[in-house]
Amino acid sequence: MRRWGKLGKAAVILGVFGVLLTAGGIGYGIHLGPRRVVISSGSMRPTYPAGTAVVVTAVEPEQVRRGDVVILRYPVAPDEPAISALKRVIAVGGDHVSQCGDQPVQLNGAPLDEPYLRGGGVNGYRCFDTTVPDGEMFVLGDWRANSIDSRMWGPIPLAAVESRDRPGTARTVGVIGAVGLLGLLLMAAAGVGTYLAMESFAGRLHDSEGAFNFAHSATTLGTGRDGEYFVVVPGSGTGALAGITGTGGIVIDEDGTHRIHLDYQLP
After folding, report:
1. What is the full DSSP assignment across 131-165?
2. Which residues are catalytic?
3. Confidence category of residue 8, pLDDT binned at 50, 70, 90
4. Which of 66, 99, 218, 226 is most buried, by CB atoms within 10 Å?
């Protein structure tokens, strides 16, 4: 039985670790569903001035929490088409929220600390007092004097949320990319990779001369190969090799020479 040397074992460990890192990074990135958006409204100033680019991630309705900054789609008025808007979630299902005049927003009977407000002003141009139904939320803009929100709409469904921005989102996405890149580098260092190639053969097979295309793929691990696949491309044969079908493989000599072996059929 052939023994693995220290270098071979290290290649396997690096390769496996690289595959796990890459797969984990890709999987978590898909789970987050990140996308870049540019804020077009000033209703969330000063935290989000118009023109600010942010990276937001997908979120399920049941994951929305108080304090989240979300992108939602909702009509600004009845019978109007839905628009995308960036707002802050102030209250969720079961919460009692109220405000009037220049008093702070009251959440479940206590004043809400809102350090993000533009100029510190609550600017309650419209009084409200409501208990948010289950499955809904109450949203406000940070620049209260320049925001259309739940003060006009009332509570809106959590299902209207498309994505959210949370502190560290861009950093998290960057870390995911770095993890994936590290995984790829480890795979390369270990000689791990998968390829798919299309090539052509032109010449003589026994007494038949012509040409055909073949496709082959394999996964490399260190100096070994696994998961090899080789097939003659149907319909690619010409000359006396027209109609050729079959499979085969590639053998790589120590000096790097590639040799093809075929199990083929001709009409």
Report:
1. EPPTTEEEEE-SSGGG--SHHHH-SEEGGGEEEEE
2. 43, 87
3. very low
4. 99
